[in-house]
Amino acid sequence: MQDIETTHALQNLIRLQELQVRQSELRDRVEQTPKEIACLDEELAEKRNMVEKAEAAITHSSKERRLTESEVEDLGRKLSHYREQLMEVKTNTAYQAMLHEIKFVESQISEREDFILEQMLESDELDQKLAEAKSAFQEEENIALARKKELEALVVESDSGLQEVEKERARIQNEIPGEFLARYQRIAAVRDGIAVTKVVNHSCEACHVRLRPQLLAELRTNRQIILCENCNRILYYSDA
Length: 240
Ligand SMILES: [Zn+2]
Fold this sequence. Notes:
With about 240 residues, the protein is mainly alpha-helical.
C-alpha cells in the first residue's frame, strides 16, 4: 500500500467517523424529540385539568347553594303556615306542640343560612383558585406551544440532516478501500462506534493514554494507519 493511498484512506476514515457520530446524534434527536413533545402535551393537559377541576368545584358549590336557598324558601313557607296555625289552636298542649314545631323549623332555617354563608365565603376562594389555575394554564400554554413549534421544526431539520449525512456517508464509504473499511468496522464494533480518534495533548482523545514520542512522530505524517496501543483505535494527528 502506497503512503499516498493510506493518507487518503485515513482522511476518509476520519470523515466517515465524523459522519457516523453526526448520524447517531441526529438519530437520537429524531427519536427523542417526539417524546419531548409528548411530555409538553402531558404537562399542558395536567394544567388544563386543574382549570376544569376548579370550574367543576364552582359549579358544584353554586348548585349546592341554590339547592339550600330553595330549601330555606320552603322552610320559610312552612314556618308562616305554622305561625298562622298557632293563632288557631285551642288547647295549651296543642299550642306547645306547635311552638315546638316552629322552633324546630327555625333551627333548620338557621342551619341552612349558616351553610349558605360558608358557601359564599368558599366561593371567593374557589374563584381565586380558578383564576390561578387559568393563569398557570395560559402561561404554560404559551411556553409549550412556542417550544413545540421549535421542537417540530427540529425534527424536520434533523430528518433532512440525517438524509444528507446518510448520503455522504455512503459516498465516503464507497471510496474507502475494503481492507481499511473492514478494519474500521471491526474496531467500531467493539469500541462504542468510535474507531478513529484524534491525538490531543500527546494522548489518545478516546482513552487518554499518553503516546510514545516515536509514535507521535510517525503520527504527525498521517501516512500510515497507527493504532492506539491502549484502546486499539485508529489515531490521527490534527493541527487544528
Ligand atoms: Zn486510545
